[in-house]
Design brief:
14 helices, about 375 residues
């Protein structure tokens, strides 16, 4: 059989897992056999696997065996695949409790989902594990900041500059698009030009040109990835002098973590994933802290499953918008799209002029820029 045919058989053998039923007759050896063993430990069907074309599972609950397996998959598979396999191992084989052991945490490949799992175990975490867990969380946070911070600051600084409209701009600050539209009545056909009697420009965002941003984050278990990303963005926003940032997390209680925004790791360990949801209570708290409605953006990040008073929640949103607050409702702030969410509440918010939608971390700066400038949001 040619090289191409042999490679196809090899790949089918890796997919089917061996045994009499796979029909390939292919025997794996060396690296392929080791890779197949790592896959079998997680995705095997149980039993001895003989004569049925099934892999046999075998991670069990042994910490040393799991630690070796984590090392193996990092050797044989690229990082994105490793992260998926780790997530599957936690979900399928119930390995969450093993993450409370420092040697296990040192063996895993950190990612957003692992951080979510660690935060859900936070209260059960022994002191011997806590520092290792913080190091894992910090590595993920630093990766996210490196990816998102510079673009977020640049995008929002531009939005703040544009929001400070002036009528006597310097040449470099002239907004030519708005200037031309403002002077179309002065078009001279014979010269095919517009005479700009009135210049429209944007000033540089000064210390006195401040906006206020309130991030109101649902910390129910399904929102774990959103909590991680929102904490990073909260720290980035707080580092900008022209934006006063408040970060509030909630379940059935409300916790203000604004004083910890200088370190998103502290913010994350101040959350408690799981529990019920009382959006109305959270919005009531946020509303009570707003001092400049016309210059405030409130971002609610929630799947909208309300355990509180639905009608009061909607009234609060309507009242904030009537006062001039820009209200943004995000069903998720993650790369995974919209989760399950309360469609009735989403429709009710849309009717109030606050469409609810899922937002990726890469789109979030554009959403915030639009909200700061009071222009339509870039809803996907």
């Amino acid at each position: 059989m040619g090289t191409a045919g042999g490679e196809r058989l090899r790949r089918w053998r890796m997919v089917l897992g061996g045994g009499d039923a796979d029909g390939t007759g292919r025997v794996l050896g060396g690296r392929d056999a080791a890779m197949d063993g790592a896959l079998a430990a997680l995705y095997g069907g149980g039993g001895d696997g003989k004569g049925r074309g099934e892999r046999s599972a075998g991670l069990g609950g042994s910490a040393p065996k799991v630690a070796r397996w984590l090392g193996d998959i990092r050797t044989y598979f690229p990082t994105p695949v490793v992260q998926v396999m780790q997530r599957d191992a936690i979900d399928r084989l119930g390995l969450s409790t093993l993450l409370l052991e420092p040697e296990m945490l040192e063996a895993v490949e950190p990612d957003v989902h692992l951080v979510g799992t660690l935060l859900s175990l936070n209260k059960a975490m022994p002191d011997t594990t806590r520092e290792t867990a913080r190091a894992v969380v910090r590595k993920v946070v630093e990766q996210l900041e490196k990816r998102l911070a510079a673009r977020t600051r640049a995008t929002l600084t531009g939005a703040l500059d544009r929001s400070a409209r002036i009528n006597r701009p310097r040449h470099r600050d002239i907004d030519w698009d708005r200037t031309i539209r403002a002077n179309l009545k002065n078009y001279l056909p014979e010269y095919r030009t517009v005479v700009p009697e009135r210049l429209v420009g944007h000033g540089r965002a000064a210390q006195s040109v401040k906006k206020e941003v309130v991030l109101c984050i649902d910390q129910s278990g399904s929102m774990a990835a959103s909590v991680v990303h929102a904490s990073v963005f909260g720290a980035v926003l707080a580092s900008m002098r022209s934006i006063a940032t408040r970060l509030v997390v909630f379940d059935t209680a409300v916790v203000d973590l604004t004083d910890q925004l200088d370190d998103p790791v502290d913010v994350l360990f101040g959350t408690q994933l799981g529990g019920g949801t009382d959006i109305n209570r959270a919005l009531a708290y946020c509303q009570s802290r707003i001092t400049r409605p016309a210059d405030t953006v409130v971002v609610l990040i929630s799947d909208l499953y309300e355990g509180g008073i639905r009608d009061e929640m909607l009234k609060r949103v309507a009242a904030m918008k009537a006062a001039g607050v820009e209200f943004v409702a995000l069903l998720a702030l993650s790369d995974e799209g919209a989760p399950a969410y309360d469609r009735e509440h989403a429709a009710a918010l849309a009717a109030l002029g606050a469409p609810a939608f899922a937002c990726t971390p890469d789109l979030f700066p554009e959403v915030m820029a639009a909200a700061l400038e009071k222009r339509p949001l870039p809803v996907p």
